[in-house]
Amino acid sequence: MTNKPAVTFADIQAAAERLKDRIERTETHYSRSLSNITGADVWVKYENHHETGAFKERGALNRLLQLTDAEKKRGVIAASAGNHAQAVAHHARALGVPTTIVMPKGTPNVKVEQTRARGATIVIEGETYDDAYAHALKLGEERNLVFVHPFNDAGVIAGQGTAAIEMLEDAPEIDVLIVPIGGGGLIAGMGIAAKAIKPSIQIYGVEPESYPSFNGKRRGTNVSAGGQTIAEGIAVKKIGDLSFELADKLVEDVILVDEPGFEQAIALYVSAEKTVAEGAGAASLAALLSAPEKFKGRKVGIVLSGGNIDTRILASVLERSMVRQGRIAVLRFIGDDRPGILATVSRIIGDTGGNILQVAHHRMALHAPIKGVEFDIEIETRDMQHTQEIVDALIAAGYNARCL
């Protein structure tokens, strides 16, 4: 006789019924643009359309609804880099449950302020999620609070699994799911539900290269996890024991994504889908872009798991994307330090269709002649070929320009 798993499909179905009409039933849409770009048939689950902007509402609310009256009175505590924090605070306030959230240093300001605005008491502690987690456990014990774990909890995992039920109701033809992995709660819940509904479906996970916790554990290797990543929502050093146990046998493979990959996916969501994804939220698309050969011709469901990105970071990502595409470039050349040179150069750039964004000139550059000056001109163009046309026009006019 086998032991019953800690989370079953029946648990996820019960969670779906519990959450009905309490959270947003987010859309699953077929994306023609992403399908054309990747070579797969792509459906996107827009979990950024929850009120708090991320999928975490599913697990947090399911867990809170299972508290006893005595536990609700005592209050809850959680550790989170942002989305779990907002979800717990939002629904705990609606249920009248006092909430304390411990967040690590470096959590984006937008997430800190949105969590505070939802009525939670905020404690900033630790350099990483793991540091914040340890502090939250300590505070919870001292203050007799109920700890609401972001991923290693049966109630939370069951709640997250409801996303797969909705996704396969809306797009039953999907035969591959790509799911972000932080602590593993989402992929465990979605994997259990998806396999129960459609046993033939394949589940792929995604982790940042710098935080390969799930991948390392399933391979039995000691991995070095740490460092800065734009996907801070899945920057977890140690995968949850329960979530790993549930998910490991369900996951086909784990794709590791580098930082430019996350940036590319965020920018593509904006340009192709006209929607905003945070780094972790863009992980499924980043994996699809990183390994298109795995999914070409397949019917792929990707989860846009959250959209709570700092606006300054988003602006930087979009600008860097334009640089990578050759649509923003800095041209450097040495010219004579005489009146009218900038007007001449500007006319050449304008006549070839370029737009000047910034100009800097350096008279103290020692590699320039004493009567010369080094110019750096930042321009906006259509693409790399257009940039090269402008460089060629400047060279033809006697300015030995090059792209930095």
From TrEMBL:
Source organism, top-level taxon: Bacteria
Catalytic activity: L-serine = pyruvate + NH4(+)
GO molecular function (one): L-serine ammonia-lyase activity
UniProt keyword Lyase present: yes
Entry cofactors: pyridoxal 5'-phosphate
Key word Lyase present: yes
PROSITE patterns given in the database record: ACT
EC number: 4.3.1.19
Domain ACT: 330-404
Single GO biological process annotation from the record: L-serine catabolic process
Entry keywords, A to Z: Lyase, Pyridoxal phosphate
CDD domains reported in the protein's UniProt record: ACT_ThrD-II-like (cd04886), Thr-dehyd (cd01562)
Pfam families attached to this UniProt entry: ACT (PF01842), PALP (PF00291)
Record family assignment: Belongs to the serine/threonine dehydratase family.
Protein name: L-threonine dehydratase catabolic TdcB
Organism: Terricaulis silvestris
Lineage per the UniProt record: Bacteria, Pseudomonadati, Pseudomonadota, Alphaproteobacteria, Caulobacterales
Gene: tdcB_1
